[in-house]
Design brief:
By secondary structure, this protein is of the alpha+beta class. It is 21% helix and 35% strand.
């Protein structure tokens, strides 16, 4: 009876307590629904990514065409100084001819085969972009030639760049007669040059620089007896910032030099490639005669034949002088940083004297330490000095100065600023060293045994840029 009574009393209470507990719904069905939804989302995203990736690959490989006007990612920029300039030359206003040239550039397969890196590559990688954006930068007729420089937008899938392309043809040529002659893609120099030359006909050179610049195309240089440099300017002005020159049949004696400037500021200076040029033949009979004469009167440790030949050849190439008719003298030879070193002078017939200091060897390379154009009169009586550079990668100028006295000098002094002259100790070869602060100007003076002045020469500043010729800058001449 007691057990029955307990059951009848507890059952309703337990039942009520059990139903009062908040039991969560089974979580599995909800989890399964959410997982199915996430899985569908991932599949959709993956499918979209695959489709987009396939499209990008197709676009990048040019399987899927992309309109030329569509935006892209620029990977190279042509010089803004040229692109921003207005069209120049007599063809700038010939819209019909330019339209025909645009069509030829973008469609003619001959351009593809003629252009190894440029406009329409034969492998189908780079394509012309929007043909309406093809722009004429320069176009003109010259004696026997029609020349055009064109900016061409290129596209490789999503990548874009702009090439500056030369086209040439006979004078008065239609667009269909123009053919590819060279190109540039994103160069740093704000100048485009083109040379066309051959052995049996006159050639030409054209240089396009920034607007309002002056272009000089120099032929053979002339070092005057007064110690100045004169250029034979071959360029004829063909619009603002454009120069054109007629060249004789190759080989030319020397490589023409281009100089583009705006006022006193030189924007570009460098050789005009496209030879061949006669240059200097180091194995020629005239070089053997030149080297034999160069050793006469030399002081110091003699140079071996190969080193002397290297020093002289580099001096002739740098000054653009031929071996025939040029006099070379070794003023001093010794060593610097454990390498062969020399001071030599180069003089064309009837011209000024160029002093070169060089050192080096085949293992570490060859270095030019001094280039200095001197007046012919009294050149042999002048002391010559140059700063010794540190034997490191940057070749930083030091306060040590090498001094070479003339043969007849009894002593040499150095005057720094307004300080009293200081005598330079000379060795048996009439060479010595002294110390001059790098930021201080100085003058070297040589005296004869009777105390009279033989000659004096300012210590030239260290030349920062050797792209020009000796005498082209104040650092390479003594004549103002």
């Amino acid at each position: 009876m007691t057990e029955s009574f307990a059951n009848s009393t507890l059952s309703p209470a337990l039942w009520q307590a059990a139903h009062g507990v908040d039991v969560s719904e089974d979580p599995w069905p909800g989890f399964a629904r959410r997982e199915r939804r996430h899985r569908r989302t991932r599949l959709i995203r993956a499918a979209v990514a695959v489709a987009v990736g396939a499209a990008l690959v197709g676009i990048q490989t040019n399987v899927v065409p992309l309109p030329g006007w569509a935006p892209g990612i620029a990977v190279a920029a042509a010089p803004a100084a040229l692109l921003d300039a207005p069209p120049r030359g007599t063809l700038a206003g010939d819209q019909d001819w330019l339209d025909s040239l645009r069509a030829r550039i973008s469609t003619d397969p001959r351009i593809s085969s003629d252009t190894p890196l440029g406009v329409v590559n034969a492998d189908g990688v780079w394509k012309v972009g929007d043909r309406d954006r093809i722009r004429l930068l320069y176009g003109s007729d010259q004696p026997g030639h029609r020349v055009a420089l064109v900016a061409v937008p290129l596209r490789f899938g999503l990548l874009t760049k702009e090439a500056l392309v030369w086209y040439v043809g006979p004078a008065g040529a239609a667009a269909e007669q123009m053919h590819y002659a060279g190109h540039s893609e994103g160069v740093d120099d704000p100048v485009m040059t083109l040379v066309q030359a051959g052995p049996d006909r006159d050639g030409f050179a054209v240089v396009v620089g920034p607007a309002e610049s002056t272009v000089m195309i120099s032929g053979n240089p002339r070092y005057t007896p007064k110690g100045t440099l004169e250029y034979e300017n071959l360029a004829r002005e063909d619009g603002s910032g454009v120069g054109f020159a007629v060249l004789p049949p190759v080989p030319l004696r020397n490589e023409p030099v281009v100089r583009v400037s705006r006022g006193d500021h030189v924007l570009y200076q460098g050789g005009l490639g496209g030879g061949p040029y006669a240059g200097t033949d180091p194995s020629g009979a005239e070089m053997d005669v030149l080297l034999t004469a160069a050793r006469r009167g030399a002081r110091g440790t003699p140079l071996d034949d190969a080193t002397l030949r290297s020093f002289v050849e580099e001096a002739l190439l740098d000054s653009r002088l031929p071996a025939v008719g040029t006099t070379v003298r070794v003023r001093w030879s010794g060593s610097e940083h454990g390498q062969a070193a020399a001071l030599l002078t180069v003089q064309p017939a009837g011209g000024g004297v160029i002093a070169y200091a060089r050192h080096g060897d085949d293992r570490t390379g060859w270095w030019t330490d001094l280039r200095l154009l001197l007046p012919a009169e009294g050149a042999d009586q002048r002391p010559i000095g140059w700063r010794i550079r540190a034997d490191n990668g940057t070749r930083t100028p030091t306060d040590q100065v090498r001094v070479i006295a003339p043969p007849d000098a009894a002593r040499v002094t150095v005057t720094v600023g307004g300080a009293p002259p200081v005598t330079v100790t000379l060795d048996a070869s009439n060479a010595g060293t002294t110390r001059i602060p790098p930021d201080q100007p100085a003058t070297l003076t040589a005296y004869a045994t009777d105390g009279s002045v033989l000659g004096s020469t300012p210590l030239p500043p260290v030349e920062a840029n050797m792209s020009g010729l000796p005498g082209d800058s104040p650092a390479t001449r003594v004549t103002p």
